[in-house]
User: Which sequence fits this backbone?
């Protein structure tokens, strides 16, 4: 992984008539990085990838591939390519012909083409006999691999993915996520992966860029985004979370021990605590921050149990504990607590700032 | 259950089956029978001889067959080239305007073919619309544009345009947008996308359109008679002459059989290649 960014996006804006899909966004992508761009539908991620692969032109701003400005270069002249959501395999061509397609366009000799296609089949762990198979004889996962092989045959500088796994069932998706991660490691190429599934992004990527309404909310490694979200939106997008509004170092309903009082003195913002950081306290047990409530409902999540705890005059709190630490069911009063190291405070002005 | 479905299917197919047998198969068998009769008889209850086919081969009728097939092939090719951009527009670009275009093209079918061809005769003949205006403006006239082979091919293209246009538009609509975008993304030029993606994926529509045009044009008569005068004689005209002026039904039947076998062979070959189920949206 070299330090020079392979892709630089500078003040990129895209408007469709009245509607602004991208608001002057910036992004640097490192060579060899696996970057996931995550956002709900309508966040502008599809518009962004269309600009990045060259299927559309930006209204303003620039896209640089190393030292070349590429935002006005059409897709067929760019050294990048994309794996489509629909995979867009050519149904009238065999598996081998699909993979060889980019090479055929470059007038590579048939024997060389075939050798490369067989290499790629092996890389994608498909048997060589698939070379002559028809596309409609392949399963969903196999088609996925053929599409990847075709994109790799193109030998792109950057490989883009437009939610290629979203149509697959859960187990196959999990397998392919790992394969894709592994493929990234083995090829050393730069992957930019668009998805609405945060889970997918967390499993595979080096960094995650979270989009909302045409802007980046936060760009950071998954662990950092999870532990230190920049905004409420990111915190909530990253899964179950408890948010408490803090004004001048106080949150109604929360009892601060000395360490918490000192830490939060005079602070205002949103306190973020993940459900698994909240513990159910035994009588007499102390915690930096403590709160009380009555169990409203419980859900079994395999190895863990999740409780929704109702509180008087405040939003309910979500608590997740290991199954062996589970306590009684609905209606039981509980005391909960968490340490200051598990808290993260979002400053109010940071809420709408773009990364 | 599957057996029952089959039986039901056969039952439902019965009316159309009977109709086809009576209205389509029977006449062909009758013509086939007549073609084996001795010359100038008007009944099929004679000892068959194949003298009519001998006449077809020895009397130079292959020329008229060649003109028919050649001109319909030319018309099919020209129509493909002319209709592709139009059909592309209808399937992908025009949006609402394709409906207007469809209605416009279909409306021409409401007027009899002969009347429309006479319209062209009035337009193209000496002293007609074109030559008359040219003479009035420039002072010098010419012989008119009728009575040659190109004008016959033009007439064929004019009459059979809808039969190429609509299947072609259907075929082009079957080309997935993503396949085109993916080819472009993988570095294909506009021409390469046409050759590698659009042409093969639209092939069912191309085949159906070409077959319809070719088959109809091969049996066409009016264009040669009205626009072509006696410039060339096509096989359909020979068939007509044999049955009417010639009063030689076996010869007419033999000529018809030759045309049926050639055109039918091409049609069956073509239909075997076109994936009609996919065109009808059944898979």
Assistant:
């Amino acid at each position: 992984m070299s330090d020079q960014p392979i892709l630089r996006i500078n003040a990129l804006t895209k408007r469709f008539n009245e509607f602004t899909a991208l608001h002057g966004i910036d992004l640097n992508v490192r060579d060899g990085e696996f970057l996931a761009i995550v956002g709900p539908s309508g966040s502008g991620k599809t518009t962004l990838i269309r600009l990045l692969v060259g299927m559309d032109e930006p209204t303003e701003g620039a896209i640089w591939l190393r030292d070349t400005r590429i935002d006005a270069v059409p897709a067929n002249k760019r050294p990048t390519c994309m794996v489509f959501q629909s995979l867009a395999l050519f149904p009238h061509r065999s598996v081998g012909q699909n993979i060889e397609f980019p090479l055929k366009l470059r007038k590579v000799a048939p024997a060389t083409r075939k050798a490369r296609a067989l290499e790629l089949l092996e890389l994608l762990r498909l048997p060589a006999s698939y070379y002559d198979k028809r596309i409609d004889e392949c399963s969903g996962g196999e088609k996925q691999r053929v599409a990847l092989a075709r994109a790799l045959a193109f030998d792109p500088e950057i490989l883009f993915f437009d939610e290629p796994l979203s149509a697959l069932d859960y187990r196959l998706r999990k397998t392919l996520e790992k394969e894709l991660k592994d493929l990234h490691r083995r090829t050393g190429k730069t992957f930019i992966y668009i998805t609405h599934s945060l889970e997918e992004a967390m499993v595979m990527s080096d960094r995650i860029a979270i989009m909302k309404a045409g802007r980046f909310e936060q760009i950071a490694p998954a662990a950092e985004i999870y532990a230190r979200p920049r905004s409420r939106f990111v915190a909530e997008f990253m899964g179950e979370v408890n948010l408490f509004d803090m004004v001048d170092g106080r949150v109604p309903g929360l009892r601060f021990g000395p360490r918490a009082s000192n830490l939060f003195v005079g602070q205002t913002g949103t306190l973020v605590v993940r459900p698994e950081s909240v513990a159910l306290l035994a009588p007499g047990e102390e915690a930096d921050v403590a709160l009380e409530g009555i169990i409203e409902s419980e859900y079994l999540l395999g190895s863990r149990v999740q409780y929704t705890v109702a509180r008087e005059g405040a939003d309910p709190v979500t608590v997740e504990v290991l199954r062996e630490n589970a306590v009684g069911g609905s209606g039981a009063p509980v005391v909960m607590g968490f340490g200051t190291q598990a808290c993260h405070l979002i400053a109010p002005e940071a809420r709408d700032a773009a990364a | 259950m599957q057996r029952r479905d089959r039986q039901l299917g056969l039952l439902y197919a019965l009316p159309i089956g009977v109709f086809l047998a009576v209205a389509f198969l029977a006449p062909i068998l009758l013509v086939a029978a007549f073609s084996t009769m001795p010359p100038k008889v008007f009944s099929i209850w004679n000892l068959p001889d194949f003298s009519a086919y001998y006449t077809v081969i020895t009397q130079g009728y292959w020329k008229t067959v060649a003109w028919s097939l050649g001109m319909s092939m030319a018309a099919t090719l020209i129509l493909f080239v002319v209709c592709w951009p139009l059909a592309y527009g209808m399937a992908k670009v025009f949006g609402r305007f394709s409906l207007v275009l469809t209605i416009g093209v279909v409306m021409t079918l409401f007027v009899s073919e002969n009347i429309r061809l006479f319209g062209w005769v009035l337009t193209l003949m000496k002293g007609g619309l074109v030559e008359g205006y040219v003479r009035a403006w420039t002072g010098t006239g010419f012989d008119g544009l009728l009575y040659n082979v190109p004008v016959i091919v033009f007439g064929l293209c004019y009459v059979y345009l809808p039969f190429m246009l609509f299947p072609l538009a259907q075929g082009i609509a079957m080309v997935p947008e993503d396949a085109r975008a993916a080819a472009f993304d993988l570095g294909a030029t506009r021409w390469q996308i046409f050759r590698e993606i659009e042409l093969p994926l639209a092939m069912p529509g191309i085949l159906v359109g070409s077959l319809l045009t070719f088959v109809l044009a091969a049996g066409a008569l009016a264009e040669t008679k009205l626009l072509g005068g006696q410039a060339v004689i096509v096989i359909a005209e020979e068939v007509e002459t044999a049955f009417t002026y010639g009063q030689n039904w076996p010869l007419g039947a033999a000529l018809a059989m030759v045309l049926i076998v050639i055109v039918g062979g091409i049609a069956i070959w073509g239909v075997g290649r076109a994936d009609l189920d996919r065109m009808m949206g059944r898979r």
Chain B has 14 helices and no strands. The mean pLDDT of chain B is 89. The first helix of chain B runs from residue 2 to 35. The radius of gyration of chain B is 23 Å.
